[in-house]
Write a structure and sequence with these properties.
The structure is a homodimer of 410-residue chains.
Chain A: E1 4-10, H1 26-29, H2 33-41, E2 43-48, H3 58-65, H4 70-73, H5 77-84, E3 94-103, E4 109-111, H6 121-128, E5 131-133, E6 137-143, E7 148-154, H7 186-204, H8 207-214, E8 222-230, H9 237-241, E9 245-249, H10 252-261, E10 264-265, H11 279-290, E11 295-300, H12 302-309, H13 312-331, E12 337-343, E13 359-364, H14 378-381, E14 388-390, H15 394-401
Parallel strand pairs in A: 1-11, 1-12, 2-14, 9-10, 9-11
Antiparallel strand pairs in A: 2-13, 3-4, 3-7, 3-8, 5-6, 6-7, 12-13
Helix pairs in contact in A: 5-10, 11-13, 12-13
């Protein structure tokens, strides 16, 4: 059987010592017998997703872990948020973050968030999705949470060299227009200005808005795009690495990135991205993916939720879920299989956001040079045999273990 | 209170084992109870100022530690020596190292070092400083030690693409001329040639030289510039990092770099840059700076002097001074403050110059992931939880601890 590598990621795993946990981190405090067993049998170390001290996002971290330098391929939030809401995004597309907003009859913005609308946006989005714009450009539009949405313009010769002036970022002001900053951005500016104008026409009398007005709520009667970004052309994962891969990941942003680089998405029944997610279903689905591809990316969102909420009890529970997930996968592996266990970034409960602290990592499989580390934690792994590596190193390490890396030189 | 970060640097701190110290390094041998306490409470590691094995200068090391890649921003000794002698240097300036020299009536160099002149050079320099040159260029000139001096040309469209042929680098030869190597360097060549010609006219009958001749000494009757280098345009520290900083540093070169990147200099009374410096005054001044800025750079020159002299006893004494300096600062910090303790480069007593050995580093503050290191030394810190980092990483690590780093991605 061909060798395989699985990258098992606990989102936002890393943390800092917490006084209420006797100075331990959630990972150090949690009961993780299976991860500890993997640490004891494998080689451990610390990993900086981008570089020491850099506060990586989940998007930039995953790009790096998949071998795509985020300094080259991360072109701002527009394209990556669009991936996150589930829009198909291709190299050369022009993407935006958007708000549903409310304007009055004179085109003055009454409410940039349309009363923080939280129902009906899927129906509103459907009315705009697929809109044909001048210059052979097509708009793909999808709602996100609350008043947020993503927009992708697909066509030839698009450019992000347009002014970010449609959304005045304040109520009581008129909607602006995008202006080309370079001559060849005229068609992109025309397209997005047309999209905004058409959104007013189409949404004005939409049933969702009729209903909102009847209930005394601000109608979502215009779309305000901002943060234009070109989607970079990336080499397909198979082209980049010489082998294909699958992904079992929970949240939109990471699903989007996986699809964007060409990993096949496998949906695990009961995977919710929340604290109630079915980790054993995720494990089973990862094994299905691994029966079809030599590489599988797995991401469990839970630990990051605890970090962002500052809820170390939740984070501990989610880490214990991750322990069971990894155990279920490890139990079904053959001696030809390799797994890497890691986080994508740190989300300390004390910070409630991503920090620049490095992540503990285990690499487990036949022939790895074991070390003295016997538990999986931030401080134990700092004494491991791997030392301190970067996220971009990881797939190089795994690809040579599974005999799929060309020699550089003779 | 807003979080703050202090970078406490012992210049030339790193060393190699010394037989007379029972195989210990000066840092390992010195009595440093306060540094050891910080090491025990913080996270330790090793740092290469530029990269492993690279013999960094104090200038290139400090550029890196402040987050300016020396491969991009270090453009030779001209600009940095000019900073070192205390000249104001700005991006776009053309700077030179200079000698005071002696010529005869035929323009032949009699003595490239003007009898190693060591008094009166300040008066001679004053006679040249501020000279107006063709093309709207102004010359700023300042004496350094002995026969050495710095020169900065300030104006529009300067270029370092000129031949280094004014100074023939040997006695008995005529003074040469700078020639443009590119057409647009003509005005720079003209300016520096004019400066040399004018220096001969102005210095010929200067009282200092009249006095020297009366005493049978070679007059300093010409300036020989060499090593032209353009000063790079650097982003201001506040622009680079999003927060401002102060500096309490002793010697000209590092003062120059601090000012050049936009740190505010704070002068500590009794700070001499020598072995008699008042380390407690430096600590007090650093705390004043930290009351005004979230970042403060501190550099104690002493340990480097011991290294360059090959005098390990002196180096040990200076390290113990540094221990007291760090203690005085640490005693006044709040739980919101972070300090990094480190050297800028190694100056082993056995080498009497900078080596490429890495430096021990401590990062101390709330939430750092402590390790088992309980003493501050080259070998103890090599087992620390930080692993091995680069100088350019340090401010990334500190800026995220003090909540002043933008997230890269989402």
């Amino acid at each position: 059987m061909a060798k395989r590598a699985l990258m098992l990621i606990a989102d936002g795993l890393g943390d800092r010592p917490i006084a209420e946990l006797s100075g331990k981190t959630p990972l150090e405090y949690a009961s993780t017998p299976n991860l500890d067993k993997l640490a004891a049998a494998g080689i451990c170390g610390m990993m900086d997703p981008i570089a020491p001290g850099i506060r990586a996002g989940s998007d930039t971290a995953h790009l790096a872990l998949l071998g795509y330098d985020p300094h080259q391929y991360y072109t701002g939030r527009g394209p990556f948020e669009a991936m996150g809401v589930g829009l198909e995004v291709k190299g050369g597309d022009l993407a935006f973050r958007c708000n549903f907003a409310t304007i009055d009859g004179q085109g003055i913005i009454v409410d940039r968030r349309a009363g923080r609308i939280d129902t009906g946006t899927a129906d509103l989005a459907k009315a705009l999705d697929g809109m044909k714009l001048p210059g052979g450009i097509t708009a793909y539009f999808k709602e996100s949470t609350a008043h947020r949405a993503g927009l992708v313009l697909h066509g030839q010769n698009l450019s992000d060299q347009i002014s970010d002036t449609i959304d005045p970022h304040a109520d009581g002001k008129p909607i602006g227009k995008a202006e080309p900053l370079m001559p060849d951005a005229q068609s992109s500016a025309d397209a997005i200005n047309t999209f905004v104008r058409e959104s007013i026409r189409i949404l004005a009398d939409h049933p969702v808005n009729r209903d909102r007005k009847a209930r005394g709520l601000n109608p979502a009667n215009v779309i305000l795009p901002r943060g234009a970004g070109m989607t970079p052309h990336v080499p397909h994962f198979t082209e980049r690495w010489g082998f294909g891969g699958g992904a079992v990941v929970e949240v939109g942003l990471i699903r989007g990135i996986a699809r964007y680089v060409g990993l096949e998405l496998f949906d695990a029944p009961g995977s919710t991205g929340g604290s109630d997610t079915d980790e054993l279903s995720i494990a089973r689905t990862a094994l299905v993916a691994a029966s079809q591809y030599p590489f599988v990316l797995v991401n469990l969102k839970g630990p990051d939720l605890g970090g962002h909420d500052g809820d170390y009890q939740l984070k501990i529970q989610m880490i214990e879920k991750f322990d069971r997930l990894c155990a279920a996968i490890a139990a079904s592996l053959t001696p030809d299989d390799y797994i890497a266990v890691l986080g994508d970034h740190s989300t300390p409960c004390s910070v409630k956001d991503h920090s620049g602290d490095p992540l503990p990592i285990i690499i487990h499989g036949s022939g790895v040079r074991t070390d003295d580390v016997t538990s999986y934690g931030e401080r134990s792994c700092a004494r491991g045999g791997l030392g301190r590596i970067n996220g971009m190193d990881l797939l190089n390490i795994l690809s040579q273990f599974i005999d799929k890396q060309e020699k550089f030189g003779a």
